[in-house]
Amino acid sequence: TWKWVVGPMFLYLCERLVRFWRSQQKVVVIHPFKTIELQMMKKGFKMEVGQYIFVKCPAVSKLEWHPFTLTSAPEEDYFSIHVRIVGDWTEGLFNACGCDKQEFQEAWKLPKIAVDGPFGTASEDVFSYETVMLVGAGIGVTPFASVLKSVWYKYCHDATNLKLKKIYFYWLCRDTHAFEWFADLLQSLEAQMQERNNAEFLSYNIYLTGWDETQATHFVVHHEEEKDVITGLKQKTLYGRPNWENEFKTIAGKHPGSRIGVFLCGPEGLADTLNKQSISNSEADPRGVHFIFNKENF
Fold this sequence. Notes:
The chain has about 300 residues and is of the alpha/beta class. It has two domains: about 25-120, Elongation Factor Tu (Ef-tu), domain 3, CATH 2.40.30; about 125-295, Nucleotide-binding domain of ferredoxin-NADP reductase (FNR) module (Rossmann fold, 3-Layer(aba) Sandwich). It has helices spanning about 1-25, 90-95, 140-160, 180-195, 215-220, 245-255, 270-280; strands at about 30, 35-40, 50-55, 65-70, 80-85, 115-120, 130-135, 165-175, 200-210, 240, 260-265, 290-295. Helix 3 (about 140-160) links the parallel strand 7 and strand 8. The longest helix has 22 residues, at about 1-25. The chain is globular and about 55 Å long.
């Protein structure tokens, strides 16, 4: 029996030693808000879009590691995660970073953060296509912050060498208030694309899947305003869920003969729906349109 056990045990111990070594390297933490953003720097850290890291804060728990998707772009000189305060550990991190205090926190006063990673996901392949559909549900929108930032940096630096020519982005959420930071990112991209006269590069649709009667009345009253009452974007928020069959058929009609990457970060049920639509809307002819489905479930 020991011959079968010693190999896996050796690999496990090596993995734990590597994680311990990585966690001892110093990380500088900067934080602004209460869906808090941690902006960190670490010697030798290299990332790709959509990757994730494991994070430990010894001031909160000496044993707990938690996975978080990176929301920064590889082109930035720091890496960042967004942490929603929804449990004991995230509440402890919020307090340890001094986010409950009004005064500015010096970097040296912030707690030590141990980081392991980054680790790859399907989102890394987004630059392999000319046309992509990005679908984020709820907190699943976070990997696409990294993707959209990186796409924009590449586009501004050298658009002619960027294979990706068109992005269709779908954001499904019950409540946008928890993800206002992402709406701010979309506002920035929207303004910059209009300045460069290329507003067609990114098409996005935001679907609010949960609202009450009071909110619905407020939406109707302000519907004619130039900017959306919820997000502040020019693209108005839609209510309910997308008709995926219509969306796929419309995109297929606009890009005949293309390989279209479909990237999802969301629940398993939505993954099944998008996978079926990708198959049913792909043509048998190799020269026809093909949807290639990639998923990251939570």
